[in-house]
Amino acid sequence: PPLCTSKGEPINAILGFARMLLKLLREQKPDFVGVCFDAPGKTFRHEIFTDYKATRKETDLELKSQFPLSRELVDAMGLEKFELPGYEADDLIATAALRAAAQNMEVIIVSGDKDILQLVSPQIKVFNESKKILFDAEEVIRKWGVRPEKIVELFTLIGDSADNVPGVPGIGEKTASKLLQQYGSLDKILTLPDGLSEKIKISIDRNRGQIAQSKDLITLNSAAPIQVDWERCKVALAFPPELEVFCQRLEFYSLLAEVAQPKDIAKSSLGTVALENKAYETILSFADLDRLIQKLRAAGRFAVDVETTGLNIQKSHLVGISFSWAKDNAAYVPLGHRALGALPQLDVDSVIKKIKPILEDFNYAVVGHNLKFDYSILAQAGVRMRNMAFDTLIASYCLDPSKNSHKLKDLAAEILGARMTRFNELFSGKNEHNMEDVEIERAAPYACADADFTLQLADHFGDLLHSREIEKLFTDLEMPLVPILAEMEMAGILVDRPYLNQVNQEFTAQLQSIEKKAHALSGQEFNLNSPKQLAFILFEKLKLPARKKTKTGFSTNEEVLRSLADAHELPRVLISHREISKLKSTYVENLLAVAGEKDARVHTSLNQAVAATGRLSSTDPNLQNIPIRTEQGRMIRKAFVSGPGNVFLSADYSQIDLRALAHLSGDPALSRAFLNGEDIHLSTAAEVNHVTPSLVTQEMRRRAKAVNFGIVYGQQAYGLAQSLGIGMAEAQEMIDTYFLKYSGVRDWMEQTVLDAKKNGYVKTLMGRIRYLPEINAKNNALRSFAERTAINTPVQGTSADI
User: Fold this and answer.
1) Is omega for the bond preceding 794 within 30 degrees of 0, making it cis?
2) Which of 514, 243, 485, 533 has the alpha carbon at shortest distance from 373?
3) How far apart are the first and last CA of the chain?
4) In this predicted model, what pLDDT tens digit does every residue of 120-157 receive, in sequence order?
5) I want to staple 397 with a disulfide (CB 3.0 to 4.6 A). Which of 161, 234, 533, 609 is the partner?
6) How far apart are CA 263 and CA 427, in angstroms?
7) DSSP string, 60-114
8) What is the DSSP letter of 362?
9) How crowded is the C-beta side of 645, counted as CA atoms within 13 Å?
10) In whole angstroms, what is the distance from residue 282 CA to residue 323 CA?
11) DSSP 3-state assignment of 624?
């Protein structure tokens, strides 16, 4: 699918190529690898036939731009590549494969090109990676009806439309296969033996020259003048460091963990250690701790990072704390290492008592990466950090909310050019990853680096926030929110466990009842959760129209079921079963699992740096998506209680997105409707339906509401038609009428998109930036999405800021 870097560079194809290569290396475990490329320009086949590949469409520019990157990737992976002007990649593959087979090697060719099947032999197989088919001779016969050595003759008769290679008119795939089975060879067929139809005889006779030419075009040249040095093709045990640099440059953060090479983390000696010109020290005495605190006081601003037993705040405890007060200077205070032969560590309570005054003093500025986590862990130990001045995670998010990764190690690599040790590299292949199992000598430099590079990133980001005029957003809105969210997470929200257990039982009973009804409607028992059994019931037994086919059979997804709901009651029953089943597992059972037995409180994570619009999100568990329109959803919501002596206070900002739109666009009619206290959906309904407000029905208002919010999301006629279940023409008329009434909104939307194309970004009212690198993309899908985002972000982002 379309994908760009934060700078707008298309990377979807190269990312897919990288993932495929890594997967092949991991699963096939080859001893030797060669990657063959088509060289630019014409080949010997163009000399044979000037119209060779002439019917191919011009390669998409965004795909073409990634071709050089594919060669760069192969080099970065340390793999041997072959490329030769005048020859195609398939010719080079044929040459290398046959040379390998001649040396008794087992060869696997990875290709989706059917012409390559001519190379299949006892020692050579072809793997079609996308279809997951390994072609040996038997598989070739099963697919094409002929042995591999007859593939060239088969495709000579059929031709190849993709390469514009002409076949014999009147001979298709089945006929060609049948003829070769019957007569044994193309040469025999060319003699026009008895049994050939007159029509085929005439066609062959008229096209003899073309047949010879087509055979030459299809036959791979296995004598390409390339040097194949097997020593250079040998797969190394580890990837070169260049691959990590390549992945960082193209923002392939998901691949970094897979390709990063474990660094040899030498155990640091005690006291001060020079690590790559860095002064890192390990604090093992109170005298050293006192000296550290003096350094922090003298600096006035310092970075803090905690090491813990895990990432779940409720279940984790302190293992150590690192501090950095200047570039390349840091110290680690180990507190809970349990590794065999662990050094004597300072008492946790005594350390907390000594560092508490400076961390709770507003005169000292604390820097961190994801300070909400550090705040919460230290709060459990009795410290409430006061002046959390700079969070590099939040700063990165404010500077580019769409960035693929705001992780410390990824930012250090991208911005500071630093290769930081990753957490999994501390464990030498162990399955259990827990910091308390790591020796202090290995943990100290790792922890010190976290604090050190956080401080360095803070200096870098501080200048950027100022120059891009989003310093106020960062300091006045985002940073003060950090301790508030931390306290909210720690407090949690109370759940009525007995009631929730009752809801769980009720949902179980409902599911059993629905299951019985489904069996009755289908006339037999079957597993409602089995797509295969369900497809049989719907499409074979009940003869309902099959809408969509997948690799495993006909689809029974929700979209298909909804399309069948008017034709039969069973799809409606199945939809109901899925909805309740999802609510039961996703919310009821999950909430019972995470709500503590003792305090029955749910501690969700409130994520400040995830949604690109600036909104908060909720995870582990997600408390934002519990349905409110269904009876079952409302039942789950009732499980949240305020507790004895407390009440819930609900504060809602009426029509916040539409009010933001009215303000940003300055549309007189929309602004006037809000200033006069009108029902905005009623007003729109009256306008788009050409009636007075008194004649607006609930259905009209519902549709108008969809139009109002659809406009905010940059929705087009197709999207509106889908959401309302109406025709495209009617949906377009509703949108056109809306823009007649609110022409200021239309003008603002058009101008916003133009500005985004010029600047490459949009802003909210508070100055929150969202970059849109795809806004000028040639790819229509990419560009259209960016245009919708350009309209939506200032509105939704301003709402989020408010």
Assistant:
1) no
2) 485
3) 34
4) 999 999 999 888 899 999 999 999 999 999 999 999 99
5) 609
6) 11
7) PHHHHTTHHHHHHHHHHTT-EEE--TTS-HHHHHHHHHHHHHHTT--EEEE---G
8) T
9) 0
10) 11
11) coil
Closest CA to 489 of 610, 602, 615, 636: 602
Q: Cα(127)–Cα(485) distance, rounded to whole angstroms?
A: 52
- Per-residue pLDDT of 724-779, as tens digits, reads 888 889 889 888 888 888 999 999 999 999 999 999 999 999 999 999 988 888 77
For residue 21, how far is the Cα from the chain centroid?
Answer: 19
> Is the CB of residue 273 less than 8 Å from the CB of residue 330?
no
Q: Which amino acid is at 275?
A: L
In degrees, rounded to 5, the angle at the alpha carbon of residue 261 between the alpha carbons of residues 265 and 23 is 150
- Closest CA relative to residue 392, chosen from 327, 299, 462, 463: 462
Taking CB atoms within 8 Å and a gap of at least 24, the contacts of 60-66 are 60/778, 60/779, 61/778, 62/10, 62/777, 62/778, 62/779, 62/782, 63/10, 63/13, 65/9, 65/10, 66/10, 66/11, 66/12, 66/13, 66/14
Say if residues 494 and 640 touch (Cβ distance below 8 Å). Answer: yes
Give the DSSP per-residue string, 20-53. HHHHHHHHH--SB-EEE-PPSS--HHHHH-TTTT
- Residue 600 backbone class (left: φ over 0; alpha: ψ -120 to 50; beta: rest): left
Quick check: 86 and 44 in contact, CB under 8 A?
Answer: yes
DSSP, collapsed to helix, strand or coil, labels residue 272 as strand
Tokens of 541: 């037994």
Do the Cβ atoms of 472 and 611 come closer than 8 Å? no
Least confident of 212-226, 290-304, 444-458: 212-226
> In angstroms, rounded to a whole number, what is the distance separating the alpha carbons of residues 660 and 679?
16
Measure the CA–CA gap between 316 and 237, rounded to whole angstroms.
36
CB of 18 within 8 A of CB of 25? Answer: no
This prediction's pTM: 0.76
Q: What is the DSSP letter of 749?
A: H
- Rounded distance between C-alpha atoms, residue 431 and residue 424, angstroms: 10
Token output for 790: 């350009």
